[in-house]
Amino acid sequence: MSGERTKLDPFRDIIGLDLPPDRLEELVAQYADILAAIARLRELDLTEVHPAVVFRPLQNAEEGA
Amino acid sequence: MSGSPLYCTLAELAPDIRAGRLSPVRLVEEALERIRLHDGALKSIVHVSDSALAAARQAEEDIAAGDWRGPLHGIPIILKDNYLTADMPTRAGTEAQELEFPYLDSGVAVRLREAGAVLLAKARMHEFGWGTATPPARNPWDLDRTPGGSSGGSAAAVAAGFCIAATGTDTGGSIRIPASLCGLVGLKPTFGRVSRAGTVPHSWSLDHAGPITRSAADAAALLDVLAVHDPADPGSADVPAPDCSAALDRPVRGLRLGVIRNYFFEEIQPDVGAAVEEAIGDLACLGMSVTEVEVPNLGYGLGAIFAIELASSAAYHDRSITEGRTREFQPDVRALVEIGRMVTGPDYIKAEQFRRVLMRDFARILEEVDVIVTPTTPLTAWRVGEIMVEVGSRPESALAASWRLTYPFNLTGLPAVSLPCGFDRLGLPIGLQIAGRPFEEALVLRVAHAYETSRDWRERRAPV
């Protein structure tokens, strides 16, 4: 039915590309293996750990874009 | 010196070049001839420089006039095709016609030219550094097999005697994997040690630039030239660079060797395991103490490197994605770049948090030991087109297996070198990986050099 959202639409929104359904399905399937590895990472409690990337205003301003 | 000088090391060549006994012009001519004769089968080169012979003549004149600039002067070196060069096109492995890269020298190219090296050619790589197989390049040890990747063309070219050394880049193992599979030395320096200015990015916080050579001493000589702070690379570290070459011959007796038994020795081919165990025994015979250690949390690394690499690559190619240029990418690379947009913000940040955990884990270990040894890859070179391989007790994707033991050192940024430690029952090279504390490349290379000179693996040549 026209205008009805499918289960793939959230992925289309995230990817930001108007891909045909079969192409999108292919990408989602391929991402499943990667997501399984990322899901394992999600198991870790890293609440108290600062990310390795550190924002340094002075240094970043000097480096510019 | 016997045989072709193109199979010699810098330490063997430099005195003869300096003394005028070996002509850089003849060396470059011989390299060009070998490329002409053999690269049809090897497919390791994507562009040969029109100005290499002129550079060799200039080097010869300068050396004759007494202006010898050091061990790289007059030496033919090949660059991976993601290093920008002023006199050669750069494609970063892509055939996407709408993408153009400037004719400028990368930081590494600048340093090599200043040292008098002759930049001979650009080496084939997998598109934008994705993947570890580098099609269609072949392995000089067996033309039916892959040289690894993504710096596969660079390693194949050195192993085939097309040049004395080559450059590679390493985001998850792309210098060390092809070095291991092609029987060479591949050095991934500490993150920030060598400038990436003017290299086409793949993943900014994981990308490293470094050399692929025939010996640890040659890797040290190249690092001595390349290890310079470069403000043009925001990741470049302003730390003093030691004289790695001068430190090579210091004894290794008394140094502490760490063997991480968990993760790095699980699921590896038996021949690989046996060769690495023998190498550990050899290092013990050289007077190093051996300690078995454990690094927790390594099993979480795959999710972390996927999140960072995919998200970074998707960000770098953002304009190409939205403007439709990714249609010209290889299908697998296009898919990876597009699914990078599916990595969530929290997953990316969590990966960066995990890196700090892993860095702390390794820092603790590296208080107890001076260097760590592991296999470089759990398998030797696999057949071109082979998707699944037998590694240890189970079948595994060749691509997944190939970087399993190298990417922890991209997440941590620690220096790591791969060097030959034997051959499997098919005669294919096996790599030993030695890693150390941040910016201690001199120590890592010293241990590599001590092991290398205790064995004769380097004497064997690929049949091409």
Itemize the secondary structure elements and their pairings:
The complex is a heterodimer of chains A (65) and B (464).
Chain A lengths: L8 H7 L5 H22 L14 H7 L2
Chain B lengths: L9 H9 L5 H19 L2 E4 L3 H13 L11 E5 L26 H8 L3 E6 L28 H8 L5 E6 L5 H6 L3 E4 L19 E6 L2 H11 L17 H4 L8 E5 L9 H16 L3 E5 L7 H16 L1 H5 L8 H9 L5 H24 L2 E5 L12 E4 L2 E4 H5 L5 H5 L3 E8 L5 E8 L4 H14 L10
Parallel strand pairs in B: 2-3, 2-4, 7-8, 7-9
Antiparallel strand pairs in B: 1-3, 4-6, 5-6, 5-12, 9-13, 10-11, 12-13
Helix pairs in contact in B: 2-3, 7-16, 10-12, 10-13
Task: Give an account of the 3D structure.
The complex is a heterodimer of chains A (65) and B (464). By secondary structure, chain A is mainly alpha-helical. Chain A contains three helices and no strands. An eleven-stranded mixed beta sheet of chain B has the order 1-3-2-4-6-5-12-13-9-7-8, with helices on both faces. Helix content of chain B is 37%, strand content 15%. The two termini of chain B are 20 Å apart. Chain B is α/β, with parallel strands linked by helices. Chains A and B meet through α1 and α2 of A and α10, α12 and α13 of B.
